[in-house]
Design brief:
The chain is of the alpha/beta class. It has a domain at about 5-255: ATPase, nucleotide binding domain (Nucleotidyltransferase, domain 5, 2-Layer Sandwich). The protein is built from 16 helices and 21 strands. The chain has a seven-stranded mixed sheet. A six-stranded mixed sheet has the order 3-2-1-5-12-11, with helices on both faces. A two-stranded antiparallel sheet has the order 4-7. Helix 10 crosses helix 11 (about 325-335), helix 10 (about 310-320) runs antiparallel to helix 12 and helix 11 crosses helix 12. The longest helix is centred in the C-terminal third of the chain and has 27 residues, at about 375-400. The chain is globular and about 65 Å long.
């Protein structure tokens, strides 16, 4: 068999930036570029982005990445994306109609509370694998249909397209010829039946979403369209994978087997472990699609979503008026050995898994006269690890297997202090990917499988993959004491909300 030549152009459309990487057949990054993105907060707990700005960031990052090498030799394009964020655009013109409603946005909290009041939480979880929460896309689509002029009629007539960010990037890459999403992103909308893997008529009726506006559902690996000429990107390049960023990170970490578990540390965080069949959680985790190599090769997963993790560090740095907010907090935290009994619960938009409490709000507890900015900085960083422990413990129980180590990736995983504290507080070794780019690597692997650069998962697992190991050093007594303090702080954040 002739060996497929060429590289993969991986587009990582994220919340705070868009990154584009050129990846070779050995899984090595040949070039990369990034462009920043802004978020808007028009009301408390509302989060929006500009869809046109997102597409501009993709175009510019593609041009910069391709311009960094003499002969990029692109064999396929891969897409990974921020999940649950959703938007609408005109089918004829491709013009956005309204904002991108971000995954963190809580504007549909009242709508979701009504669904829970109607006793629909268990019914929805059984069909979608997801609890009722504003995080997921369906309630956001419902909001757009209610608030955009004439949206109901136009969507029913197929004049509007609704989609997550993989759909929006694909639409623009193909010049408006393909409206599709992959199974992982579809599984995060709360409109996909987790058993049939199709849009559910019952769910579409419940949320009032016209099927005519929705994308076609495709596997995560497989050619879904071809590029039009865009700047340095030539026409005719196959777009060979789409996958949500958290799912892409698990695939990029080669977490193919049951018992693997990864945590992606970003603006928010996600823990995910693959399962051979759907496991319906009883304790606040989500059942989701890990990836689909084809229509009949589908891997499921259990996932826990943390709404605010790395974002708490940025927030504190801005509150403290530091010149470089995130880096400044990280440096401050090194000035103390621990948080001095201070806990910071970053429930800025409520709490995600395993609590799913919209009404929870941020709390700082344990302050004394001796508490300093450095203790607050340390508490902010430790809050990320505590939230991961919350999910890890539940996942350990519900997956029914021993999770012996945690695979870590994402921007905040570069912080050694956080990684060591994470290993300490879960009492397990932590293996940090030497590359922070696990999501686009995973998307690239899936695209490479589709075009024949790689042929098996074993071949992908054998690629060189450098990891750094952090062993737990904290005694069980100290671990339990600190985690008990965190649980008391969470109880304060949720006091009077249930």
């Amino acid at each position: 068999m002739v060996e497929q030549r060429g590289n993969i152009l991986a587009i990582d459309q994220g919340t705070t930036n868009t990154k584009v990487l050129l990846i070779d057949r050995h899984g090595q990054i040949l070039a990369q570029a990034a462009r920043p993105l802004e978020q808007r907060y028009p009301q408390p707990a509302w989060v929006e982005q500009d869809a046109s700005a997102i597409w501009r960031s993709v175009r510019k990052a593609i041009d910069a990445c391709l311009g960094a090498v003499a002969d990029p030799e692109v064999a396929a394009i891969a897409i990974t994306n921020q999940r649950e964020s959703v938007m609408a655009w005109e089918r004829d013109s491709g013009k956005p109609v309204g904002p991108v409603i971000g995954w963190q946005c809580r504007r549909t909290a009242d709508f979701c509370a009504e669904l829970r009041t109607r006793g629909l939480n268990a019914w929805l979880a059984a069909r979608t694998g997801l609890t009722v929460d504003p995080l997921f896309s369906a309630s956001k689509m419902r909001w757009l249909l209610t608030h955009l002029p004439d949206a109901e009629r136009r969507a029913e007539r197929g004049e509007l397209c609704f989609g997550t960010m993989d759909s929006w990037v694909l639409w623009n890459l193909t010049g408006g010829s393909v409206h599709a999403c992959d199974l992982t992103n579809a599984s995060r909308t709360q409109l996909l039946d987790i058993q049939t893997l199709q849009w559910s008529e019952e769910l579409l009726q419940l949320f009032g979403i016209p099927r005519a506006a929705l994308p076609a559902i495709r596997p995560s690996s497989g050619i879904v369209g071809k590029s039009t000429a865009i700047g340095r990107l030539p026409a005719g390049i196959p777009i060979a994978s789409m996958i949500g960023d958290s799912h892409g990170a698990l695939f990029g970490q080669a977490g193919f087997v049951v018992g693997s578990v990864k945590a992606t540390y970003g603006t928010g965080s996600s823990l995910m472990t693959p399962t051979p069949a759907p496991v319906l959680s009883q304790h606040g985790l989500s059942t989701t699609i890990a990836w689909a190599l084809s229509a009949d090769q589908v891997t499921y997963a259990l996932e826990g979503n943390i709404s605010v993790s790395g974002a708490v560090v940025q927030w504190l740095g801005e509150v403290l008026d530091l010149a470089d907010p995130a880096e400044g907090v990280a440096n401050l935290a090194t000035h103390v050995a621990d948080a001095g009994g201070v806990y910071l619960v970053p429930a800025f938009v409520g709490l995600g898994a395993p609590y799913w409490n919209d009404a929870a709000r941020g709390v700082i507890s344990g302050l004394t006269r001796g508490s300093s900015a450095a203790h607050l900085a340390r508490a902010a960083i430790e809050s990320i690890a505590y939230q991961v422990r919350d999910v890890f413990d539940v996942m350990q129980t519900e997956a029914g297997v021993d999770l012996t180590a945690l695979l870590a990736d994402g921007g905040a995983s570069r912080n050694d202090m956080l990684m060591q504290f994470q290993a300490d507080i879960i009492g397990r070794p932590l293996l940090r990917s030497a590359s922070a780019e696990a999501s686009p690597l995973g998307a690239a692997y899936l695209a490479g499988l589709a075009v024949g650069i790689w042929r098996t998962l074993d071949e992908l697992a054998a690629l060189p993959r450098s990891r750094e190991r952090f062993e737990p050093q904290m005694s069980p007594e100290e671990r339990n004491d600190r985690y008990s303090g965190w649980q008391r702080a969470v109880a304060r954040a949720t006091l009077g909300t249930t």
